Amino acid sequence: MENRPVVFDKPKIELHVHLDGAIRPETILYYGKKRGIQLPADTVEGLLQCVSYEEPLSLTGFLEKFSIYMPAIAGDREAIERIAYEFVESKAKEGVIYVEVRYSPHLLANSEVDPIPWNQERGDLTPDEVVSLVNRGLKAGEKAFNIKARSILCCMRHRPSWSPEVVQLCKKYQNDSVVAIDLAGDESINAETCQGHQTAYEEAVRCGIHRTVHAGEVGPPQVIKEAVNILKAERIGHGYRVFEDEFLYKQLKDNIHFELCPWSSYLTGACKTPFCNHPAVRFRKDRANYSLNTDDPLIFNSTIHTDYKIAWDSMGFTEEEFKRLNINAAKSSFLPEKEKKEILYQLYEAYDMIKSTEF
């Protein structure tokens, strides 16, 4: 990589990445064979040709990719613990020192009939067991690879009936790897269903559970407004459409953290402009509170450096901006204050900023 910024090799923070979108293709093939589940290919290269892509699709088209490979993983105890462990290993290799990884316990459990084809049959795991297994994998990965990993449990827009159990699992595991609740799913189809999740989010507020929401990725600014005002979101996943409502943007840019995913936004069709006009450029120029993240690195065939390189090559990012966005990510993380300060100190030390008061 020409003119690679030094900060690329420094410690980084990642706040928006999906566990089921970050599985190693080798692991998918292994469990497909072990469980006798038919996959569209029997080699890594062949599988990647089916699940990964490099030209834009719709958000709905992107989400359909999960149905290709998730039958090999969902509902299997060993597989779920292993993908969590391997995820931590992968992030450590990318120089990430703290990561918050999100997933739907119900979809990984394969425990309810769901409209998505791969989830038609009832699995033998409960969502509670899934959370316990993921926690075990994350903790083993933390110990082996010397990074910190926490999880966020996802409600699904099309399944409000799951949300009460999701918030109960957040409460149960609040001091055991789980740090927040999220609302994910296809905004283009279910943009107006946040009220079906309002009670769960109210319970999260009451119990001190942190909150983030996918909003404004492809849906209108109103979805972001509802996420903040109704669901009391502290962070917004994506949020690119916020610029369609300048008043809303000015209200939020200093108080709400935006979890940006540049490469993802191109491939899902969420942002159709060239990268030089990407919303991340406006966030950078305004010194807003945001981070850069991978979202679904398996499907996008990417690492955190993919997004950093786009920002460096096409968005005018500087070394100092990479430092600033990582510090803001650490400050906006859902860690307890003591652990947050420890992560921040690691960044300040790595960035030679111990004596600096700039941030």
TrEMBL record:
Name this protein carries in UniProt: Adenosine deaminase
Organism expressing this protein natively: Pogona vitticeps
GO cellular component: anchoring junction; cytoplasmic vesicle lumen; cytosol; external side of plasma membrane; lysosome
InterPro entries, alphabetized: A/AMP_deam_AS, A_deaminase_dom, Ado/ade_deaminase, Metal_Hydrolase
Pfam families for this protein: A_deaminase
Record EC number: 3.5.4.4
Reactions listed under catalytic activity: 2'-deoxyadenosine + H2O + H(+) = 2'-deoxyinosine + NH4(+); adenosine + H2O + H(+) = inosine + NH4(+)
Domain named Adenosine deaminase: residues: 11-349
GO biological process, one term: purine ribonucleoside monophosphate biosynthetic process
Membrane topology: Peripheral membrane protein
Coiled-coil annotated spans: none
Location(s) in or outside the cell: Cell junction; Cell membrane; Cytoplasmic vesicle lumen; Lysosome
Keywords in alphabetical order: Cell junction, Cell membrane, Cytoplasm, Cytoplasmic vesicle, Hydrolase, Lysosome, Membrane, Metal-binding, Nucleotide metabolism, Zinc
Cofactor: Zn(2+)
GO MF entries: adenosine deaminase activity; metal ion binding
Family (UniProt): Belongs to the metallo-dependent hydrolases superfamily. Adenosine and AMP deaminases family.
